[in-house]
Amino acid sequence: MNALRNKVQLIGHVGNDPEIKTFDGGKKLANFTIATNESYKNDKGEKVEETQWHKLVAWGKTAEIIEKYVTKGKEIAIEGKLTHRSYDDKNGEKRYITEVVVNDVLLLGK
Q1: Residue 3: which pLDDT band, with cuts at 50, 70 and 90?
Q2: What's the CA gap between 77 and 52, in Å, rounded?
Q3: What pLDDT, on the 0 to 100 scale, is given for residue 1?
Q4: Coil, helix or strand for 42?
Q5: Which own/partner contact pairs does 57-61 have at CB distance under 8 Å and 24+ positions apart?
Q6: Among 104, 108, 107, residue whose Cα is nearest residue 8
Q7: Considering only CA atoms, which of 60, 8, 67, 61 is closest in space to residue 32?
Q8: What is the per-residue pLDDT for 52?
């Protein structure tokens, strides 16, 4: 059951070209977003579509794969874990971020 703790799987479309950072020693970091869509019928029988945006980060070899093959609009499947962190912005206010740390990525579509 430990494998099911803090596991996230998403399929969606990439919202922007991934931002890649390369650190000393060559380790890479990829930051990007994906949109997932859900549709349902409301009380009046009308179809309603909702889009959720998810912040994603990937490190190392996964980031290298994302850098090579993932671009804005591409449909991908990811698996990873949910993380939360905070920081102080330039005005000294505490900001909170929830993101998915990607372990695996699968390219979908054409």
Answers
A1: low
A2: 15
A3: 61
A4: coil
A5: 57/29, 57/30, 57/31, 57/99, 57/100, 57/101, 57/102, 58/29, 58/30, 58/101, 58/102, 58/105, 59/27, 59/28, 59/29, 59/30, 59/101, 60/27, 60/28
A6: 104
A7: 67
A8: 95
Per the rule left: phi > 0, alpha: psi between -120 and 50, beta: everything else, 109 is left
Q: How far apart are CA 51 and CA 60, in angstroms?
A: 29
SS3 82: strand
Cα–Cα distance for residue pair 79/103, rounded to 1 Å: 6
Cβ(73)–Cβ(13) under 8 Å? yes
Overall average pLDDT of the 16-24 stretch = 95
Structure letter (DSSP) for residue 18: P
pLDDT 10s digits, 43-77: 998 999 999 999 999 999 999 999 999 999 999 99
* pLDDT at 81 (0 to 100): 95
Hey, what are 4's tokens?
């099911």
